[in-house]
Structures are given as C-alpha cells and as structure tokens.
Specification:
Layout (H helix, E strand, L loop, with lengths): L2 H11 L1 H8 L6 H10 L6 E5 L5 H9 L4 E6 L2 H10 L4 E4 L12 E7 L7 H14 E12 L7 E4 L5 E4 L4 H10 L3 E9 L9 E8 L1
Parallel strand pairs: 1-2, 1-4, 2-3, 4-5
Antiparallel strand pairs: 5-9, 6-7, 8-9
Helix pairs in contact: 3-4
Length: 209
C-alpha cells in the first residue's frame, strides 16, 4: 500500500479545510526567514516540496520577491489553492519522492512537514535526492514531528478521515543529512501549533551542502 498517495488523497479532499486551519499560523515564520537569508542573492531557484495550499510559498515570496519559486504537491486541490495563494510562483502536481524527475536544479529546497507522510526509507531517499539536485552551497529546510518509528500508523484528522503518519527521530534525520554531505546550520524544537489535532514536538532543521 502506498501510504503517501493514500494520505495525499485525503489532503486533496480536505484541502480547503486545511487552508483555513493553517494558513495564518506564524510559529514557523522565523525559521522560514532564516532559510531565505541563507539563499543566494538575486533570482534564487527554490523548490517548495509538498507545498500544500501555498502558505509557506506565500511567506517566501513576500520575504524574497526575487525568488524563482516552484511548488509541487501530490494533492491536486492543494496545488489549485497554492496557485491562488502565491500567484507569482509556479506550481504543479508532483511527487516529492521523485525530485530527479523534475529535471531542474535548485538553490534551495524547503519541505515543511512533508516528512511525516514519507516512510523512513522514503525520507532518507528524499534527503539524498535533495543533495543531488541542489546547487553547491544549496540550502535544505526540513520540518517534521518527532516520535518513535514504531508509533507510525494511521491517525484520524479533524474530519475523521485517516492519514498514515510517520514519526522520525532527530538522530536519524541529522545522520542522514551528514551522510549526504550537508552541514546543519539551524536546529530547533517547537511545540505543535494550537490548530494541530495531536500535540507533538516539531523538529526544524536547516542545512547547507
């Protein structure tokens, strides 16, 4: 069973509700600014992987109007909403598990809470793929919910629909980044936002090649 695709179908169904709940969450804005500050000046090329309804993309292009931003998501309705939210960026239905298929290189990749919908093997493969499509000195932003991998499984969202949530350890993510040649620049924990159904500890990591 493709748990990632199954969760994407739920997010397609609930995209408008998700936008209403999370569009104005500001707790992660400082880390988004840190990501922007590490990008090269000028028209830096940025990929928003698993872009959702465009809330992160909107922040990035407001913070850096010069960005050449491209977002992908497996849920078609999320992509539709992202186009409305950040009209200066480009978006397409796409799978963050196939970065090589984009046939592009980037100065920065941001994946805000995409990892909870990737298995451990998929998450590690994503980091490897990101290292391959990032330019030298490229910047990678990751955020995820911390937890034990054995606690991964189907969980209900606010509508009662089930999504498969993968929990990752901080040690595993940092080790994978270093194995792929990244240096960690920022690393912090934050409590989950009040809109979250389940209270967790969030990990934010920004790394450079």
């Amino acid at each position: 069973m493709d748990h990632c695709a199954l969760s994407a179908s739920v997010f397609h169904k609930l995209a408008d509700r998700y936008r209403e709940k999370f569009m104005d969450v500001t707790v992660y804005d400082e880390s988004y600014s840190q990501f922007c500050d590490l990008l090269p000046s000028g028209r830096a090329r940025v990929l928003d992987a698993a872009c959702g309804p465009g809330n992160v993309s909107r922040f990035l292009v407001k913070r850096r109007a010069d960005l050449d931003l491209f977002g992908i998501d497996l849920a078609p309705r999320m992509v539709e909403l992202a186009r409305q939210t950040a009209p200066s960026a480009q978006f397409a239905v796409g799978d963050c598990r196939n970065l090589a298929g984009l046939k592009q290189r980037f100065d920065g990749i941001i994946c805000a809470f995409g990892l909870p919908y990737l298995s451990r093997a998929e998450a590690m493969a994503f980091i490897r793929a990101a290292s391959e499509v990032l330019e030298p000195d490229g910047v990678l932003y990751l955020s995820t919910m911390l937890g034990r991998s054995e606690d991964s499984g189907f969980e209900p969202c606010s509508s009662g629909d089930l999504v498969y949530v993968n929990y990752h350890s901080e040690e595993q993510i940092i080790a994978s980044l270093r194995e792929c040649g990244f240096s960690v620049v920022h690393q912090r924990h934050l409590p989950s936002p009040s809109a979250a159904v389940k209270k967790t500890t969030d990990l934010i990591v920004i790394a450079k090649k």
